């Protein structure tokens, strides 16, 4: 059986979860509290980070981008990267944007300070970093709005891993109530379409112990 070791509000885990569902692949989900540095988990991924995917043949894969590109090669339908080199290059560019720039400027601040410090016993959250994350998110939501004014989805005319990656990050912050949708209608319309896909149902059903999401989180007409 295929197994995905993940954490509920890890955007990198969510990226792989959505991709697996889009590919129609069955998987057993195992929540991994990766900060515990469990020895069996470290044996699979010495970096100590989720997600980690184990295949039925015993193969072990880590790093969200390595995993989704592996899935794309082994299970090419539906295509989630684009059919020509330009489309695939643009998809990879936007994946790198959200996994890199967006994570460093927004996700990391808000998730670490508001969530992970609580679970990892790392002390009080820093209000300056929370404020920085909340200020930075507007720039990225403006960019999403700019893209979808010119394309059907952020990477082009069809749904792709670019949308999956962006939505994985944004969904984690939406769970925390930190996305100011009222100021970014273009980004909101795009996200409403993405979260309405069947592959998002399990994401919207996530409930962190002791930290429920806001009421609008699972609402498809939010």
Would you kindly provide a brief summary of this structure?
This protein is of the alpha+beta class and 222 residues long.
Plain-language structure description:
- With 222 residues, this protein is of the alpha+beta class.
- It has two domains: 3-74, 3-Layer(aba) Sandwich (Glutaredoxin), CATH 3.40.30.10; 85-203, Glutathione S-transferase Yfyf (Class Pi), Chain A, domain 2.
- It contains eight helices and four strands.
- It has helices at 11-22, 39-44, 64-74, 85-120, 127-150, 161-175, 185-195, 201-204; strands at residues 3-6, 28-31, 52-54, 60-62.
- Strands 2-1-3-4 form a four-stranded mixed sheet, covered by helices on one side.
- Helix 1 (11-22) links the parallel strand 1 and strand 2 (28-31).
- Helix 1 packs parallel to helix 3 (64-74).
- The mean pLDDT is 96.
Layout of helices and strands:
Blueprint: E1 3-6, H1 11-22, E2 28-31, H2 39-44, E3 52-54, E4 60-62, H3 64-74, H4 85-120, H5 127-150, H6 161-175, H7 185-195, H8 201-204
Parallel strand pairs: 1-2
Antiparallel strand pairs: 1-3, 3-4
Helix pairs in contact: 1-3, 1-6, 4-5, 4-6, 5-7
Descriptors for this entry?
alpha+beta, 54% helix, 222 residues
